[in-house]
Amino acid sequence: MITDAKLLRNKQTLETVPSNPGWYRWWCKENIAKQLLGAFAADILEKLTRGENELSEYYLMYVGIAVKESLRARLNWHVNQKHTLSCVKSGVLSTFRQSISSLVAEDQSNEKVTNEIIDHFKVEYFPCAEEIKSDAAKTCIENKEKEEIVNHILPLNIQHNQKSEIQYFMKHLKERRKNGKIKGMARFGK
Protein backbone atom coordinates (compact mmCIF):
# COMPACT_ATOMS: atom_id res chain seq x y z
CA MET A 1 0.00 0.00 0.00
CA ILE A 2 1.11 3.56 -0.74
CA THR A 3 -0.22 6.74 0.83
CA ASP A 4 0.70 10.39 1.13
CA ALA A 5 2.28 10.93 4.53
CA LYS A 6 0.19 14.05 5.15
CA LEU A 7 -2.99 11.96 4.89
CA LEU A 8 -1.85 10.00 7.94
CA ARG A 9 -2.45 13.12 10.03
CA ASN A 10 -6.16 12.32 9.61
CA LYS A 11 -7.29 9.66 12.12
CA GLN A 12 -9.70 8.09 9.63
CA THR A 13 -6.95 7.60 7.06
CA LEU A 14 -4.56 6.37 9.73
CA GLU A 15 -7.12 3.73 10.70
CA THR A 16 -6.79 2.21 7.20
CA VAL A 17 -3.17 1.26 7.92
CA PRO A 18 -3.01 -2.36 9.11
CA SER A 19 -2.63 -3.13 12.80
CA ASN A 20 -0.07 -5.81 11.90
CA PRO A 21 3.67 -5.59 12.25
CA GLY A 22 5.57 -4.92 9.02
CA TRP A 23 8.05 -2.70 7.23
CA TYR A 24 7.79 0.55 5.31
CA ARG A 25 9.58 2.82 2.86
CA TRP A 26 9.64 6.63 2.72
CA TRP A 27 9.77 8.21 -0.76
CA CYS A 28 10.16 11.86 -1.81
CA LYS A 29 10.44 13.87 -4.99
CA GLU A 30 13.74 15.28 -6.19
CA ASN A 31 13.24 18.78 -4.75
CA ILE A 32 12.77 17.38 -1.22
CA ALA A 33 15.69 14.96 -1.64
CA LYS A 34 17.90 17.88 -2.70
CA GLN A 35 16.75 19.91 0.29
CA LEU A 36 17.61 17.07 2.67
CA LEU A 37 20.91 16.14 1.03
CA GLY A 38 22.06 19.75 0.68
CA ALA A 39 25.58 20.08 -0.71
CA PHE A 40 25.76 16.30 -1.14
CA ALA A 41 22.73 16.10 -3.45
CA ALA A 42 24.64 16.22 -6.75
CA ASP A 43 26.66 13.15 -5.80
CA ILE A 44 24.06 11.11 -3.88
CA LEU A 45 20.87 11.72 -5.88
CA GLU A 46 22.06 9.65 -8.83
CA LYS A 47 22.71 6.69 -6.48
CA LEU A 48 19.23 6.60 -4.96
CA THR A 49 16.58 4.09 -5.96
CA ARG A 50 13.81 5.54 -8.12
CA GLY A 51 10.29 4.28 -7.69
CA GLU A 52 8.09 2.66 -10.30
CA ASN A 53 4.55 3.37 -11.48
CA GLU A 54 2.94 5.94 -9.16
CA LEU A 55 6.32 6.40 -7.45
CA SER A 56 8.26 6.98 -10.69
CA GLU A 57 9.02 10.60 -9.72
CA TYR A 58 10.13 9.63 -6.21
CA TYR A 59 13.39 8.60 -4.56
CA LEU A 60 13.70 6.06 -1.74
CA MET A 61 15.16 7.81 1.31
CA TYR A 62 14.39 5.67 4.38
CA VAL A 63 13.24 2.21 5.40
CA GLY A 64 11.78 1.34 8.79
CA ILE A 65 10.20 -1.56 10.63
CA ALA A 66 7.38 -2.16 13.08
CA VAL A 67 7.95 -5.33 15.10
CA LYS A 68 6.98 -4.39 18.66
CA GLU A 69 3.96 -2.41 17.52
CA SER A 70 1.65 -2.16 14.53
CA LEU A 71 2.44 -0.42 11.28
CA ARG A 72 -0.37 1.98 12.17
CA ALA A 73 1.23 2.94 15.49
CA ARG A 74 4.70 3.22 13.99
CA LEU A 75 3.63 5.43 11.08
CA ASN A 76 1.52 7.54 13.45
CA TRP A 77 4.66 8.06 15.55
CA HIS A 78 6.71 9.13 12.52
CA VAL A 79 4.05 11.46 11.13
CA ASN A 80 2.34 12.89 14.20
CA GLN A 81 4.94 12.86 16.98
CA LYS A 82 5.29 16.11 18.93
CA HIS A 83 8.74 17.64 19.41
CA THR A 84 8.62 18.11 23.16
CA LEU A 85 11.67 18.86 25.30
CA SER A 86 11.57 15.35 26.75
CA CYS A 87 11.48 13.77 23.25
CA VAL A 88 14.40 15.86 22.05
CA LYS A 89 16.40 15.51 25.28
CA SER A 90 15.95 11.75 25.65
CA GLY A 91 16.37 11.02 21.93
CA VAL A 92 12.97 9.32 21.56
CA LEU A 93 12.03 11.53 18.66
CA SER A 94 11.81 9.10 15.74
CA THR A 95 15.08 8.60 13.84
CA PHE A 96 13.31 9.79 10.72
CA ARG A 97 12.09 13.01 12.40
CA GLN A 98 15.46 13.64 14.11
CA SER A 99 17.24 13.44 10.76
CA ILE A 100 14.77 15.64 8.89
CA SER A 101 14.62 18.34 11.57
CA SER A 102 18.41 18.36 11.93
CA LEU A 103 19.03 18.57 8.18
CA VAL A 104 16.38 21.13 7.29
CA ALA A 105 15.82 23.20 10.42
CA GLU A 106 19.14 22.45 12.15
CA ASP A 107 17.04 22.21 15.30
CA GLN A 108 15.22 19.09 16.55
CA SER A 109 12.62 21.17 18.36
CA ASN A 110 11.34 22.59 15.05
CA GLU A 111 8.24 20.47 14.60
CA LYS A 112 6.64 22.83 12.07
CA VAL A 113 9.44 22.63 9.47
CA THR A 114 9.80 18.88 10.04
CA ASN A 115 6.07 18.35 9.42
CA GLU A 116 6.20 20.48 6.28
CA ILE A 117 8.90 18.21 4.82
CA ILE A 118 7.23 14.98 5.97
CA ASP A 119 4.02 16.09 4.27
CA HIS A 120 5.81 15.87 0.90
CA PHE A 121 6.68 12.18 1.37
CA LYS A 122 4.82 9.10 0.27
CA VAL A 123 4.87 6.05 2.51
CA GLU A 124 4.79 2.53 1.11
CA TYR A 125 4.05 -0.13 3.71
CA PHE A 126 4.03 -3.91 3.81
CA PRO A 127 2.17 -5.75 6.60
CA CYS A 128 3.37 -9.08 7.93
CA ALA A 129 0.89 -11.83 8.85
CA GLU A 130 2.78 -12.69 12.05
CA GLU A 131 1.82 -11.41 15.51
CA ILE A 132 3.29 -8.22 16.95
CA LYS A 133 6.36 -8.94 19.13
CA SER A 134 6.53 -12.55 17.89
CA ASP A 135 9.87 -14.14 17.05
CA ALA A 136 8.52 -14.98 13.58
CA ALA A 137 7.63 -11.34 12.90
CA LYS A 138 10.98 -10.15 14.24
CA THR A 139 12.94 -12.54 12.04
CA CYS A 140 10.92 -11.85 8.91
CA ILE A 141 10.81 -8.06 9.27
CA GLU A 142 14.40 -7.55 10.42
CA ASN A 143 15.62 -9.69 7.51
CA LYS A 144 13.60 -7.52 5.14
CA GLU A 145 15.12 -4.35 6.64
CA LYS A 146 18.65 -5.76 6.22
CA GLU A 147 17.85 -6.69 2.62
CA GLU A 148 16.60 -3.16 1.92
CA ILE A 149 19.72 -1.59 3.46
CA VAL A 150 21.97 -3.88 1.40
CA ASN A 151 20.07 -3.31 -1.86
CA HIS A 152 19.51 0.45 -1.67
CA ILE A 153 21.30 3.67 -0.79
CA LEU A 154 19.23 5.02 2.12
CA PRO A 155 20.61 8.37 3.25
CA LEU A 156 18.24 8.81 6.21
CA ASN A 157 18.83 5.36 7.73
CA ILE A 158 21.52 5.42 10.38
CA GLN A 159 21.47 1.98 11.99
CA HIS A 160 23.27 -0.76 9.98
CA ASN A 161 23.88 1.66 7.10
CA GLN A 162 27.43 0.83 6.06
CA LYS A 163 27.25 1.82 2.37
CA SER A 164 30.71 3.14 1.52
CA GLU A 165 29.20 5.36 -1.20
CA ILE A 166 27.54 7.63 1.38
CA GLN A 167 29.69 7.34 4.52
CA TYR A 168 30.77 10.96 4.10
CA PHE A 169 27.08 11.95 4.18
CA MET A 170 26.39 9.68 7.16
CA LYS A 171 29.18 11.46 9.06
CA HIS A 172 27.59 14.79 8.14
CA LEU A 173 24.12 13.56 9.18
CA LYS A 174 25.35 12.33 12.57
CA GLU A 175 27.03 15.67 13.22
CA ARG A 176 23.89 17.57 12.18
CA ARG A 177 21.78 15.36 14.47
CA LYS A 178 24.12 16.01 17.39
CA ASN A 179 24.01 19.77 16.79
CA GLY A 180 20.27 19.70 16.09
CA LYS A 181 19.63 18.08 19.48
CA ILE A 182 21.75 20.72 21.25
CA LYS A 183 19.96 23.56 19.43
CA GLY A 184 16.59 21.96 20.12
CA MET A 185 17.26 21.74 23.85
CA ALA A 186 18.57 25.32 23.87
CA ARG A 187 15.37 26.48 22.16
CA PHE A 188 13.40 24.96 25.03
CA GLY A 189 15.72 26.83 27.40
CA LYS A 190 17.46 23.70 28.69
Q: If you average the pLDDT, what whole number results?
A: 94
Biggest sheet strand line-up? 1-4-2-3
Number of helical segments? 9
Characterize the biggest β-sheet.
Answer: 4 strands, antiparallel
Please compute the radius of gyration using only Cα atoms. Answer: 16 Å
Q: Which structural category do the helix and sheet elements fall into? A: alpha+beta
Helices and strands, in order, run as: EHEHHEHHHHEHH
The percent range for helix content is 40-55%
End-to-end gap:
41 Å
Unreliable residue stretches: none
What percent strand? 5-15%
- Tell how many strands the DSSP assignment holds: 4
Task: Please state the overall shape, judged from the principal axes of the Cα atoms.
Answer: globular
Topology:
Elements: E1 2-4, H1 11-14, E2 22-29, H2 30-37, H3 41-44, E3 58-66, H4 71-80, H5 85-90, H6 95-105, H7 111-118, E4 122-127, H8 135-151, H9 167-187
Antiparallel strand pairs: 1-4, 2-3, 2-4
